[in-house]
Design goal:
This protein has one helix at 7-22; strands spanning 27-32, 37-44, 49-56, 84-85, 105-106. It is of the alpha+beta class and 107 residues long. The strands form two sheets. The chain has a three-stranded antiparallel sheet with strand order 1-2-3, with no helix packed on it.
């Protein structure tokens, strides 16, 4: 069997969202920035603080990623940063189900 390549990354995101919910970040907004970049904002309506999750996919433009994101309006700190990379294997399209590539790494 194949090792669970993305499970640790998925777990880190789940843990972050659960922590935010416990801390009162009960409102969620999603902004579609480009075809491949989304920003998920968790907002705490009591403290008016926000946590942003910037997500870069490669469903439309492979390798483009996020050039830069400018955050303004107060204290900014990075809670979690994840980069998922492949091993250069070719993606093979399948009309019947979603596929990926083997050898994905995260850091």
């Amino acid at each position: 069997t194949r090792p669970p390549l993305l499970k640790p990354a998925k777990r880190a995101l789940i843990d972050l969202h659960q922590l935010l919910e416990l801390e009162g970040y009960s409102e969620t907004f999603v902004d579609h920035v480009t075809d491949d970049v989304f920003i998920v904002t968790r907002h705490n309506p009591v403290t008016c603080t926000k946590v942003l999750v910037v997500i870069a996919t490669q469903f439309v433009e492979e390798g483009k990623g996020v050039a830069s994101v400018t955050l303004t309006g107060g204290e900014v700190k990075v809670l979690l940063e994840l980069e998922i990379t492949g091993t250069g294997q070719e993606y093979r399209h399948n009309d019947e189900f979603i596929t990926g590539v083997d050898g994905v790494k995260y850091q």
